[in-house]
Amino acid sequence: MKSPLMSPVRTALTLLELVVVVTILVALACLVVPLTAGTTDHARRTATRATQAAIVQAIMGAPGSVGFYADLGHFPADPADLLTKPAGSPDYDPTTGRGWRGPYLLISGILRDAWDEGETPAERVALSLPPTSLRLDDATRAGAALPYTRAELTSLTIRAAGPDRLFATADDLDEVVWSSP
């Protein structure tokens, strides 16, 4: 007769044990997925807000630093003007403290919001997407030619297209560059 201490060792799980383990894992996944679903959207909103703040800094400058408006006396016609010298802009003159002394932003990708997938211009046209996911908006002179000075406008905003990647919808993220008192 064999002793109970000499019984063979089990090396596999039974089907019932396996089903219980899988059920527990599925239940945990169902709890975790909804908790992490909003994190990506929150992170994208935070990244877009940081991008907008960097653009505001590049436009307005800070005490003791350069800024597009302080250097040229008008707002940029397009966010791309912060990267390359706009046609007709004077070079910086140290005696007057005026003129273009950019680039005010060093990374061209900063002109996109966090939802922008970076499609080519042809793909953007095919998908009916705007040419860029960030733009300058003036509420009082929509469609008017830029650049212009503070005296000519009531506010200037950096608008991000947001999750739906379309402008003028409820999910747009706005960062005010300047607003009249």
Major sheet details: 3 strands, antiparallel
Task: Decide which structural class fits the backbone.
Answer: alpha+beta
CATH architect. name: 2-Layer Sandwich
> Which bin fits the share of residues in helices?
25-40%
The top-level CATH class is: Alpha Beta
Give, in spatial order, the strands making up the sheet with the most strands.
1-2-3
Beta-strand percentage range: 5-15%
In total, the number of domains comes to: 1
Number of β-strand runs: 3
Q: What coarse outline follows from CA principal-axis ratios?
A: elongated
Rg, Cα atoms, Å: 28 Å
Supply the CATH superfamily name.
Glycoprotein, Type 4 Pilin
Total of DSSP H or I helical runs spanning 4+ residues: 3
Order of helices and strands: HHHEEE
* N-end to C-end Cα span: 99 Å
Description:
This protein is α+β, with helices and mostly antiparallel strands. The chain has a single domain (16-179), classed as 2-Layer Sandwich (Glycoprotein, Type 4 Pilin), CATH 3.30.700. It is built from three helices and three strands. Strands 1-2-3 form a three-stranded antiparallel β-sheet, covered by helices on one side. The chain is elongated and about 95 Å long.
Provide a brief overview of the structure:
This protein has 181 residues and is of the alpha+beta class. The protein contains 3 helices and 3 strands; from the N terminus they run αααβββ.
Give me the secondary-structure topology.
Layout: H1 15-60, H2 68-72, H3 121-126, E1 134-137, E2 155-160, E3 173-179
Antiparallel strand pairs: 1-2, 2-3
